[in-house]
Amino acid sequence: MKFISIKEAIKKGKGNVAVRGWVYRERGSNKFKFLVLRDSTEIIQVVLKSEKFEKDWEGIDKITVESSVEIVGDIKPDKRAPTGYEIDADKINIIHVAEDFPINKDLNEELLGDRRHLWLRSRKMTSILKIRSTVLEAIRSHWRDKGFYEYHSPEILNLAGEGGSTLFNVDYFGKPAYLSQTWQLHAEPAIFALEKIFTIQPAFRAEKSKTSRHLAELWMAEMEEAWSNFENLQDDAEELIKDIIKKVLLENSEELKILERDGKKLESSLKKKFPRMTYTEALKLLKEKKKITVSWGKDLRTVEEDKLSELFDTPIIVTEYPKEVKAFYMKEPVTHPKDGKVVLGFDMIAPEGYGEIVGGSQREEDLEKIKNNLLKDGEDLGKYEFYFDTRRYGSVPHGGYGMGVERVISWICGLETIKDAIAFPRTMTRLSP
C-alpha cells in the first residue's frame, strides 16, 4: 500500500490505511499494545492485538518511545483516542527500536537545552517550527506582492552597523572583522539598482543579556525602499504584521491549539489600526497612566516598553526618538520643536509584554551629518567610504526597517522565552548543541 500522512489517514476516517512514523507514547499488556504514533502532520493511536501478531509479539513488546515503525490497518473513529481516531493494526514493520529516550517531563530548561536536538520532536516545538515556516512564507509573500526583490548582504564585515559594543569579533584571514548586526549598510547601495529590496537572513548581537527576549544569533526580515517616506514605512510595517497574523490564523489553528494560544488575542491586531505616538507622547502616557517618569533623552527600557504595551491590545508605533539613542544613519526632521535632537526613527512594540518587534527609520541624506554622527560615535570614517558614495552619486529619499523574526514568533505563539522561537537558540550561555 501507498503510505499516507497521519493527517490524511484521519481525514479519510475509515478503511484500510498505511502510515509510518515514530512512537510518541506506548503502553500495553500481554494481550494489547497501544502506540501513539506521530509524524510531521499529526498523532494517532494504534492498537496491536497479540492474537494477530503471535510470531512478532516479542519484538512488538520491546517497542519504545521514539522507535520508528510502519503500520497497515483499519482506521475508525474512537472518542477515547488522543485525536479521535484509532488504527486497528494488521501489519507492523519495526524499522528501529530506540534506546531509552532521555527526555521526560521532569527535565528543567537547561537539560532540555542540552537535548535540544531531540526536544525538536515534541509537539510543542513541532508546532512552533510549523508556525515559524508560515511566518517566513508570509513575509516573502508580503513584499513580493509589492514588487520587492529579495537581496542578501554579507554576514562578515569590517565595520559596525549598529553599535560597537555588541559586535562579535572574528578573525578574517588575519584581519579583524565582525559578524553582521544588520544588512543596513550593504542594503542601501542596492536600492539605486533595484529600488525595492528585502531580506530574511541572520544577524548577530553580542549583547550580554540573559533575558527571555534576547538571542545572540537571530533572524531579521528587513526592507529598504527608494523614494519612501516616514509614514509609508510605518504603514508597510503594520501591513506586514497583519499579513503574518492573518496567514498564521488561517493555516495554523491546530498548532495554536496545541500551544494553548488564544487566537482571539491576535485578532485585535487585524481589526484595529495600530496606535501611533511620538516618544515624547509615550513618556507623557507612562507618567499619567503608569506613574513612571522617564527623563527626556533616555531610551525606553524593557520595563517601560512592557508597561506601555499594557495600555493596548495591539502593537503600538513610537516615533521621533532622541537622536542620541538611535543609529547614525537616521534622518533628522526638517523642522521640529526639538530641532536637532530627534530623528525620524520608529519602534513597533508588541502587546502582552513582548517588546520591540520592528525598528526602522527614514535615512539621512546629508553626507556631512552622517560623517559628524560617525565621528561622535568614535568611528573610523575611512571604513565607510563605500557608504558615503551612496550620498555622492544620485542620492534619493529612502528608508527601511527590520523585523525580529523570533520576537514576532514569540508573541504570536505566546511563548515564555524567545529561545523556543528558533530550532537551536544561541545565547551568551548556550553554544551547543
Name its key features.
433 residues; alpha+beta; OB fold (Dihydrolipoamide Acetyltransferase, E2P); BirA Bifunctional Protein, domain 2; 5-stranded mixed beta barrel; 14 helices; elongated
CATH topology of the largest domain: BirA Bifunctional Protein, domain 2
Number of E-state strands: 16
Give me the CATH architecture of the largest domain, please: 2-Layer Sandwich
Order of helices and strands: HEEEHEEHHHEEEEHEEHHHEHHEEEHHEH
**pLDDT averaged residue by residue:** 95
The count of domains is 2
Neighbour order of strands in the largest sheet: 6-10-11-16-15-14-13-12
Helicity level, as a percent range?
25-40%
Which structural class do you get from the secondary structure elements? alpha+beta
Number of helices: 14
Proportion of beta-strand residues = 25-35%
Radius of gyration: 26 Å
Shape: elongated
